[in-house]
Amino acid sequence: MLRIHFTAEDMTRVRFAPRPSPVPELHAALLMLGAPHEGLLFGRWRGRLLRTLPGAAEPLAELVPGGAAPHFLDVLGGTRDEGFALIRSARPGFVRSELERVYAGQGPVPPWVRALHDGDAEAWGTLDRAQRAAYGTVLAPVWPLVQDLHRAEFTRYALTAAEQGLAAALAAVAPGSRLRDGVWEWPATPAAREARAVPEVRAVREVRLDGRGLVLLPTFHWRGGPLVQDLPDRPLVLTYPAGGGIPPTPEPRGARGGAGGLSAALGRTRTEVLRALTEPRTTTDLARRTGISNATASAHATALRAAGLITTTRTGRSVHHERTPLGALLLTGAAG
């Protein structure tokens, strides 16, 4: 179980990451790649990546000898290069202490890790090449889809917070969790109980924000418990599993045109219905424009309305559907 203690100030400093962060998403994927659980849903994904991951990425495994990653890797950054630069800018003393921590009692230390401990520029180059090689194989093919999934998760959180308040929004992030008396309690999930190799997962972990605030960051490659970045003088970053329970897969070549990535998140027909609402339209008009039956158009409109992406108004016997600002925002982002 994870228990996060809020002060009154922290309640006003909870924010949702506005966009996905490549480095934490990559590290979550690499943790999942080495985890033995979730074979049914992640087995094919894991097998494909293990066959295609280049040798240049192998040093990354040597940074987590006992399943514990050094905390100088705990960065955000809006782009891959920005995240890698933040890692490289870590204080030398912090890098040394973290490498010593993760290798304590773990046996021989690889030569390049020893060199990294000493601040060797060539060792930093090895790490940089490994990060880039892993990103190119694991994340680059699915990054547009990750962006769309993050946007949908952001929308879901924002709607819940606006309509029902912070406690409901936090509970929606982690089903079964609850915010009570200033403490957000996460129960241990079955997946988390199986992921005992990950040090963030313990019987009970108490984390105190003490005014630092909290950043919520969904990941679409990890199915264990929450991953916590808890560093002094920084907001706590909580990376939590989101999405449909299976890892994103690359789209067929040429499939991504316009809102192709959004189609993977919402479904192709549902996305076409949303795109057709350039102006308020009836169910019959939507069906005609998208080539589906009235009943199917009505079902998709119901789902889009439940997600807060369209509104429906009735005047007499006429029903008209219209995009909400959030629905328009999703399409604008997908086209960009």
UniProtKB/TrEMBL annotation:
<dbReference type="InterPro" id="IPR001845">
    <property type="entry name" value="HTH_ArsR_DNA-bd_dom"/>
</dbReference>
<dbReference type="InterPro" id="IPR036388">
    <property type="entry name" value="WH-like_DNA-bd_sf"/>
</dbReference>
<dbReference type="InterPro" id="IPR051011">
    <property type="entry name" value="Metal_resp_trans_reg"/>
</dbReference>
<keyword id="KW-0238">DNA-binding</keyword>
<keyword id="KW-0805">Transcription regulation</keyword>
<feature type="region of interest" description="Disordered">
    <location>
        <begin position="244"/>
        <end position="263"/>
    </location>
</feature>
<dbReference type="InterPro" id="IPR036390">
    <property type="entry name" value="WH_DNA-bd_sf"/>
</dbReference>
<dbReference type="InterPro" id="IPR011991">
    <property type="entry name" value="ArsR-like_HTH"/>
</dbReference>
<protein>
    <submittedName>
        <fullName>ArsR/SmtB family transcription factor</fullName>
    </submittedName>
</protein>
<keyword id="KW-0804">Transcription</keyword>
<dbReference type="Pfam" id="PF12840">
    <property type="entry name" value="HTH_20"/>
</dbReference>
<feature type="domain" description="HTH arsR-type">
    <location>
        <begin position="261"/>
        <end position="335"/>
    </location>
</feature>
